[in-house]
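Exercise 7. Given the encoded structure of a 353-residue chain, write a plausible sequence.
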């Protein structure tokens, strides 16, 4: 066992779970820092839900070890500290059961009783959580009358009733309409700002990219990559792509770009036509750009370039200076980013366990 590091909220060592001959999670080694908002990504069958269920203690690993805030979770007998470890974790499953014949405040009060909260504290916690998830006005409504988004928020409040420091959320935005997803995202940001460690699985990659500071990609039960998203982007590409827009002298700009260290392929992009013209398919469609040949660049007028670039910041500054030295007017000079969806598609093959 490695030494306990109390800046790590969740650590797994060779975590494995088998169901008969099928291995759902295979040798998973995770380290999730305290206070982080960590996204667990993977196709259906990748092992996300199995991993979260093992972290909560609902499913016993076949092999490996789990450490919560540096303390090992003992499997089997679970040991005398298991109840205390459970109090550190709040879990929201992807398919949750609700007691539909209860009103909203009774639902939260029931789970507060399960954690032995005294009566006065239960009332306070219920009021605070209903305000946090914006359900105060629904406190006397029956759970069965709530919308899908309201039920999701209520179940998140249920996971928070014992004030855990770690939240494990399995597809918290599943089935929500766009407005409800935005509300859920803002709520998770608020919880993260309160210092909670949040691990969530999701297929909505664009929202994870906005929300999470770190991600882990699972495929066929194995961890493909894990860490801060900017670091993952940097690891998966050999260089960068620069976007350069010039307003004059595109031929001069191309000559300056090609002569600089760190420059790879250079792609001039023609401006899309204002009105779509159908010339037998030779013209690009409205809103699209087409690559131009270097030797056919216009003498004047605006033009966009995409440049494969392996240089550092100093080389990037030298490249811009070289373009400007040719008297070219530069309107934009920036690095294009790789979004989370592209990272996911490039690192996975669509395999399931």
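Solution.
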């Amino acid at each position: 066992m490695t030494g306990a590091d109390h800046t790590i909220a969740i650590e797994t060592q060779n975590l494995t779970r088998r169901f008969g001959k099928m291995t759902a999670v295979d040798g998973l080694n995770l380290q999730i820092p305290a206070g982080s908002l960590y996204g667990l990504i993977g196709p259906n069958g990748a092992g996300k839900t199995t991993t979260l269920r093992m972290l909560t203690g609902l499913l016993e690993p076949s092999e490996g070890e789990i450490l919560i805030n540096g303390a090992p979770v003992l499997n089997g007998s679970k040991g005398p500290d298991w109840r205390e470890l459970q109090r550190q974790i709040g879990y929201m499953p992807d398919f949750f059961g609700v007691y539909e014949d209860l009103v909203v405040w009774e639902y939260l009060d029931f789970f507060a009783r399960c954690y032995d909260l005294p009566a006065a504290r239960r009332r306070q916690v219920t009021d605070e959580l209903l305000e946090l998830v914006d359900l105060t006005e629904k406190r006397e409504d029956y759970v069965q009358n709530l919308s899908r988004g309201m039920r999701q928020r209520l179940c998140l409040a249920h996971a928070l009733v014992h004030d855990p420091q770690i939240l494990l959320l399995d597809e918290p935005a599943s089935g929500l309409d766009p407005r409800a997803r935005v509300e859920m995202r803002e709520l998770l940001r608020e919880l993260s700002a309160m210092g909670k460690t949040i691990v969530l699985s999701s297929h909505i990659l664009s929202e994870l990219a906005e929300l999470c500071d770190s991600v882990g990609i699972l495929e066929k039960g194995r961890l493909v990559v894990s860490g801060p998203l900017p670091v993952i982007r940097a690891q998966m590409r050999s260089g960068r792509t620069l976007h350069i827009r010039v307003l004059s002298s595109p031929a001069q700009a191309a000559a300056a770009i090609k002569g600089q260290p760190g420059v790879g392929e250079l792609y001039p992009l023609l401006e899309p036509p204002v009105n779509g013209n159908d010339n037998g398919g030779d013209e690009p469609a409205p809103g699209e750009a087409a690559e131009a040949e270097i030797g056919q660049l216009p003498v004047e007028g605006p033009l966009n370039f995409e440049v494969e670039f392996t240089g550092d910041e100093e080389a990037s500054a030298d490249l811009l200076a070289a373009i400007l030295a040719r008297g070219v007017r530069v309107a934009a000079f920036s690095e294009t980013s790789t979004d989370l969806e592209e990272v996911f598609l490039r690192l996975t093959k669509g395999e399931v366990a």
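Remark. The longest strand covers residues 8-19. Students should compare their own answers with the one above.
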